[in-house]
User: Fold this.
Amino acid sequence: FAHYMLGTYYLDNKYSEKALSQFEIAYQLDSTDPFTLFQIGNTYIQTGDIITGWKYYEMIITSNTPNIKILTNMGTLSFNNNRPELALKFFVTALKTPVERSHHIQSKLIALLYAGHTAYLLNRVEEATSYFKKFTESKLANKNELCEFAIDELLKINMQNNKIRSYELVTNLCMESLIR
Assistant:
């Protein structure tokens, strides 16, 4: 844990080589820790070695100890770096991960919402609609909160990507679910 924390400190302060060295030690001590794998991936990406960075991210997807929050964060990071196929892999893996703690509920909702939006951007409208329907029919929060959350999140995403159609789709599904 000490090597991981020191690596995080170095990474936050832009000492990539020192960070990588500490994360590698932490990895040698526990090669299954998703947090360490995530930080190694971040460090490689920060140094410009994107291919190696993504390899570490992929290791988390195939891990036996998935973490919904990390998977959702990596999906969002992949999405923001114009890697929609990889983003969708992370979101779908996150959706298969059980919600173990109450703070994982938001990660599950974000994964559903972003999976829908990402599938939509990949022209998989049927798949996108399926994710959006699961989102609006979710029992994880009340319908008003879900729809508010969805509209706020998609407005942020759509402002960045200029894709208003997925926003319209989820808004219509929210309206239908509120009427029911």
Observations:
- Residues 143-161 form the longest helix (19 residues).
- The CA atoms of residues 120 and 128 lie 5 Å apart.
- The two ends are 49 Å apart (CA to CA).
- The mean pLDDT is 80.
